[in-house]
């Protein structure tokens, strides 16, 4: 819950500073939240199923590609509305925090 509170606070601050920066930040974190939700469901179904289905795995890979790269591509096309740099920064910050969280969990 703290993570989402910080995301919203940073997003609102960026929205007040410059609209494209805030929209990019919030859109990036929205995409990553959707990806995390779908990843959890996909892995649960894939690991619980007896037979591996290549079609489902390929569909998941295509979905991941679209959910990560389509918003970034659109942001580069319309930079006055969505900042591609803040969207990419939200991806990088999320991965960095996940790395730190994994390192802290292993150290405990």
Describe the structure.
The structure is a single chain. This protein has about 110 residues and is an all-alpha fold. The chain has four helices and no strands. It has helices at about 1-15, 20-50, 55-75, 85-105. α1 (about 1-15) runs antiparallel to α2 and α2 (about 20-50) crosses α4. It is globular and about 50 Å long. The model has no long low-confidence stretch (mean pLDDT about 80).
Order of helices and strands: HHHH
- How much of the sequence is in beta strands? under 5%
Helix content: over 70%
Count all strands and give the number. Answer: 0
User: What is the number of helical segments per DSSP (H or I, 4+ residues)?
Assistant: 4
Rounded radius of gyration (Å): 16 Å
Average per-residue pLDDT, rounded, comes to 81
* Sheet having the most strands: none
Distance between the termini: 21 Å
Shape: globular
Contiguous low-pLDDT stretches (5 residues minimum) are none
Class from secondary-structure proportions? mainly alpha
What is the gist of this entry?
The protein is mainly alpha-helical. Helix 1 packs antiparallel against helix 2.
Task: Offer a few descriptive terms.
mainly alpha, single chain, globular, 4 helices, 108 residues
Fold topology:
Elements: H1 2-17, H2 19-48, H3 54-77, H4 84-107
Helix pairs in contact: 1-2, 2-3, 2-4
